[in-house]
Amino acid sequence: MESKGAAQWSSIIVPSVQEMVQEKIITTVPPRYVRSDQDKTEVTDGTGLITEIPIIDMKRLCSSTAMDSDVEKLDFACKEWGFFQLVNHGIDSSFLEKTKSEIQGFFNLPMEEKKKFWQLPNEMEGFGQAFVVSEDQKLDWADLFFHTVQPVELRRPHLFPKLPLPFRDRLERYSAEVQSVAKTLIAKMARALEIKPEEMLKLFDDVDSIQSMRMNYYPPCPQPDKVIGLTPHSDAVGLTILLQVNEVEGLQIKKDGKWVPVIPLPNAFIVNIGDVLEIITNGTYRSIEHRGVVNSEKERLSIATFHNPGMYKEVGPAKSLVHRQKVAKFKRMTMKEYMDGLFSRELDGKAYLDAFRI
Ligand SMILES: O=C(O)CCC(=O)C(=O)O
Ligand SMILES: [Fe+2]
């Protein structure tokens, strides 16, 4: 039988950057991490102020007196930015603070503890890096922990079920809370675009929708301008809900050809449209390239939760939308076909999605 979930994909096993930084004082970045190809200039607008992504208030969006203007605001954010900050999302702030400190604690575990969760040959989940497909490929200045959380039967037995308590229970609740936020947002997007609700629900149903998590750990770097924490990419998923775990900033998004830093509001999630929603919305909502940069002073941590249709669901422009827009801009494919191609190549901005345009 065909293997399911992320278990079938792999990334070449590479050294832990956290371990490298802890073990010896590094003054010069090893050549494999030097990214002279990356443009690090950060951009402010003409007034010297930093351009900021839109802010969406979830309480207003969901209240019984929700104004069309709130849905329009969401629609504008998804069309023009592909990114927004979500405030008043209803998840308890002390719960989020505890989640953050337990994620920090997980990365602070002794290396021998973390090695139990390291990527296995020919697998992609666990600690390591993703999208490493050749021995001479340049690497990111970061470690990650990637795992599939939902549906439960796709969890790798040596990962989620073996995470230490109370961290495991905390992530279980976090998974449920964030899933519910994602479902609400996707339903509101369908409403804004007049996509039939059942069309969206069929794709993102409760039975086989896939939720995965990627915890990112970016150690400080003696030459931060020479490296990249996370290679520019768009997320190859439906919707991403990102939580910055400590107070250190480093996320940048590409807006009108320029890199713009994102400065998270306290307690807010950063939400972004992934390639799969770009496909479903026939290009009306856009996945936006983003990247992680690092600094010389302090480590940075984040957790991205990805929401996807089930592996064997066929994904393509929503039929009710194509009917009105008259033309389909993307080919149809199963999620598995999309992911199989994705994980066999290096991250390269939005190049992969472009291959599916008609
Ligand atoms: O660390 C961040 O802020 C961004 C993480 C991210 O883009 C990802 O995990 O896909
Ligand atoms: Fe991302």
Automatic annotation (TrEMBL):
Q: Which UniProt keywords apply?
A: Iron, Metal-binding, Oxidoreductase
Q: What PROSITE patterns does the database record attribute to this sequence?
A: FE2OG_OXY (PS51471)
Q: Where is the Fe2OG dioxygenase domain?
A: 209-309
* InterPro entries attached to this UniProt entry: DIOX_N, IPNS-like_FE2OG_OXY, IPNS-like_sf, Oxoglu/Fe-dep_dioxygenase_dom, Plant_2OG-oxidoreductases
Which terms in the Gene Ontology molecular function aspect does this entry carry?
metal ion binding; oxidoreductase activity
| Domain of life (superkingdom) | Eukaryota
| Family recorded in the similarity comment | Belongs to the iron/ascorbate-dependent oxidoreductase family.
- PANTHER family, alphabetically? OXOGLUTARATE/IRON-DEPENDENT DIOXYGENASE (PTHR47991)
Q: What is this protein called?
A: Fe2OG dioxygenase domain-containing protein
Species of the source:
Microthlaspi erraticum
